[in-house]
Amino acid sequence: MKGLEIKDCLDDLKHYAGNNKSINLKRRQVDDLCVELIESLASIVEFDGLETTQDPSPRSSLTMTMYNDDKATFVTRMLSERVAPTITSIVKQYSAEAQATSQQYVLDYYVSEMPPNKRPVVVVASGEA
User: Fold this and answer.
1) pTM of the complete model
2) Could you tell me which residues come within 8 angstroms of residue 48 by beta carbon, excluding any fewer than 6 positions away?
3) Every domain of the chain and the residues it spans
């Protein structure tokens, strides 16, 4: 997870929120949400040794045997109940233009990682291939 540089990205978000006194409240809100996001992600990674998924050891079969339905349920619930809503709350702190830019970026580069019910529907006009 360290390779994703999430903390650096969140620091950039806080900077983008601004520095003047009129937006200090928004910046504090963004800061609080960023802390919540990091804590949520950390709880997923640390839950019962899931941090070993990035271990370069040749014993990856041991890592895979550590997974079970309870862990999968925990990770799924954390992502849907804490991580995704927190990210949504962070994005809502910014202008409509910034939100649209963020959404377009996700659609351009990460649409395959979106939940199927959140992916945009592509309509192809009849007669086009």
Assistant:
1) 0.70
2) 66, 71
3) 2-118
